[in-house]
Amino acid sequence: MPPAEPRTSHRSSARGIRIAALFVYPIKSTRGVSVGEARVEPRGLAGDRRLMLVDAAGEFVTARKFPGLLRVEAQLEAEGLTLRAPGRPELRLGPGGGAVEELEVRVWADRCRAEAVGAEADAWFRALLGREVRLVRLPERHRRPARGAGVREGDEVSFADALPALLVNLASVREVEERVGAALGAERFRPNLVVDGAPPFAEDNWREIRVGGAEGVRFEVARPCPRCGLITVDPETARIHPRGEPLRTLATFRRGPSGDVLFGQNLVPRGTGTIRVGDPVEVLREEAVPGPRPELRWRRAQPGGAARGRT
């Protein structure tokens, strides 16, 4: 079947699509922070996943293996970083300065240079997780190229799994909740941008959007997000759902051609600026795509599964 011809859509503010929520995740795999506005940078939203935990070999450490990380609150402040977690004392870290230790780290197959935050942060996370880890920062002077479908030469990403930002549609979340028979919340899917006012799964056909009106920020809708077992972990309790929900239900109707379970859309910024909760979302370009394949059987994925999702 030949690919569908792209078409321009004018169903933006006229259809009432708006930003319902914005989230940043200062440290990869920790609790999201709801914000009223966010600066869009080439790497994604400012302050999103610029920090990450690594093991002694420099390999990234996530909530796939340590679900308790989802209960860690990392608050970026002008004077530094504040860390909070159940059962742990609050830790305030200054902005740093002076000599900085650099090390090579790895996110999936990508290797890049990072800066060590410091021994105090390392000790705090070591006590929390019971293993040797280090907290590292991706400085502006070091780049991690973005890769894969929907990416152009020069695109970059923070410590996110694949691409700079993730969009989730509230109507799609509600449909999954109805099928599962339980409240989940958009936060379960670790989005940056949450939109409301579009039909369920309309985002599957979006190819380019603009947030904030005629002078707003454009995003290319690069590709859908494959989901791993992390979405089976309740972000409030860090407990894994005993029946593997909502991944199990999603797998009955949201499998892509390669067998991945798909939910949400990865975005690449095509401009910079500030976006806000309540901003209109205009769909600049749509293209019909083949739907996911429900005939593929569900395979239980644990939080440590290998699918790149969104941590």
Structure description:
This protein has 311 residues and is mostly beta strands. It has one domain: M1 Pyruvate Kinase, Domain 3 (Beta Barrel). It has helices at residues 119-129, 170-180, 247-250, and strands spanning 18-24, 33-35, 37-41, 44-45, 51-54, 60-61, 73-77, 80-85, 88-93, 102-107, 110-116, 134-137, 165-169, 193-196, 206-211, 217-226, 262-269, 273-276, 281-286. Strands 2-1-14-13-17-16-15-19 form an eight-stranded mixed sheet. It has a five-stranded antiparallel sheet with strand order 6-5-12-11-10. It is globular, with a radius of gyration of 19 Å. The two termini are 35 Å apart. 43% of the residues are buried.
Distance between the termini: 35 Å
Over all CA atoms, what is the radius of gyration?
A: 19 Å
| Number of DSSP E strands | 19
Strand content: 25-35%
H/I helix tally: 3
Q: Report mean pLDDT, rounded to a whole number.
A: 90
CATH architecture: Beta Barrel
CATH topology value: M1 Pyruvate Kinase, Domain 3
Strand order of the largest sheet: 2-1-14-13-17-16-15-19
| CATH class category | Mainly Beta
For the record, what is the CATH homologous superfamily label? PK beta-barrel domain-like
